[in-house]
TrEMBL record:
Origin: domain of life: Eukaryota
Residue ranges occupied by any Rad4 beta-hairpin domain in the UniProt entry: 286-337
Protein name per UniProt: Rad4 beta-hairpin domain-containing protein
UniProt xrefs under InterPro entries: DNA_repair_Rad4 (IPR004583), Papain-like_cys_pep_sf (IPR038765), Rad4_beta-hairpin_dom1 (IPR018326), Transglutaminase-like_sf (IPR036985)
Any one cellular-component term (Gene Ontology): cytoplasm
PANTHER family xrefs: DNA REPAIR PROTEIN COMPLEMENTING XP-C CELLS (PTHR12135:SF0), DNA REPAIR PROTEIN XP-C / RAD4 (PTHR12135)
Source species of the chain: Babesia divergens
Amino acid sequence: MVYLLRKVESAEPLHIFRFLSSRFGLLPDLDQEFCDYGRGRVILQVLRCLHQHKGSSRTLTLLFVCACRCYGISARLVCGICGPTSVSLFAEVFDTESGSWKRVDMSSHTYDGERHEIAKVSGCVNKETLVTYVDFPSCEHRGYLYIRRQNKVFVYRKGEDLTVVAILLLPKDCENGVVLNVKEFPFEEAQLQLRLVQGKQKPDPKSSRREYVYVFGCNSFGWLSELTPKYIERFNDAYIKRGKTLHEWLLRSIDLLNDRVKKIPKASLVSLLEKAEAKWMDARVSNDPLPAHKSKFKNHPIYVLASQVGNSRIKRKDVAPIAFLKGEEVFLRSDFEDLKTCSGWLKVNRRVIENAKPIAMRTVYHRDKRMHVQTSLFSESQTVLIAPKQMCDGQIPTTDYDNVDATGEKFIPHGTIYVRSKNPDLLFRTVKLLQLYHKRAFSSYQKNDSSRPEIDGVVIRKCDLPALLKKYEELATEKSHADVEMTKESHRNFWRSVFKTMLADPPSVAQEHHRKIRKELSDHVSQFLNNLQDQS
């Protein structure tokens, strides 16, 4: 990597992009200087791997991000999800001159939306070329020992004792060389044919534009961020299709993953770019045009009508309407704060502070008591997060009814895992057969009685999870086979009863044919049932 970067014209993202595209995009021949540099057999193995995979866009994207980070340039990997099975990997690099992020897509050789033609290199390109080299079983370089055995390279760190650092698995090839021919790789040949077919179709720009559903970015410290508003025109429409519950879960998951990164000293400086970009994306989303009809405000992620707020939310201080629609005030959803009862905050794993004064009082109908009662509502600022419980002497903490409450956003005890199944009886049977220490758990309440929990899973130790999953899969397979056999047996019994009924009371076509029909049925029904039994 260091040797490759020495040949770049300057430490600029565009020059690195052009260098990698021209160097590996059309597979130039390996020159002798790569082989001679620093016992470059290891470098030659890496380059041969790139050549065998024809410089795939994923490999070049990773190489581009690594090169930028070696120069201290802020770069991150970006994963875009276009559909259920369509996932694309590209990169983003921060350009200090323009003060913005530039998208780099190695699959189409575009830099910030501009396509760059790959520079031509001298000599035969992308044709059959035999690369020969003298292979040695082992070599040393910078305190590391490299030993090759067939298609594996074992890397050891030299010291008082040899310690294994890595094991590189190389493609199986001949001992004296590698033939660089695209036809030897069916997957690459299929991709080439697909590109040729797509090129003949020549879709218009609108149809060829990708409609991303999710776009995520990750920098060198592991700081994860969602970049979907950057790659779609109307994020609010995608938000409505995504759903409020899924979107809130996604934001919480990203925050939990970034909590570990916040403890790194230098990560906060790098994440300033992500934080500034997040503010820009929030402003872009909030500046989307207002809906023209009142019905569009019901599930809108940004705007809300004053009549649609409800009694469970309260307006923040110094908040003014941003617009009017047919004489009704329009607010931002962020201008309102959720109000919940003590039990409501417990469902989201928060506890109301002692001696906290309620923000408001509401009269609601209590379904169990069948009467109207007064309830106190509190805001989130009047609550604290409930810390997860710890296992004491290997025992899982439970409620008064000897089960684990996993409703809402409650944390399960440390060192345990919550396993839920649509067939809880089979799960309970699995735990009983393995004799695992467990506690029954529930994540919801029964529809008929809101005070009774719906037991749908178990909480076990994390170390017991592999054995549980293996045994559960075996029992589920046996149960499915038994269900199939039961279905077949029910079909056999049905047809057996049909034919017996016909023998006892055959259809009366005519009086003179009664004996003939009975005799034919008696002769063939036994043979038919035997054949049916053999086929099943």
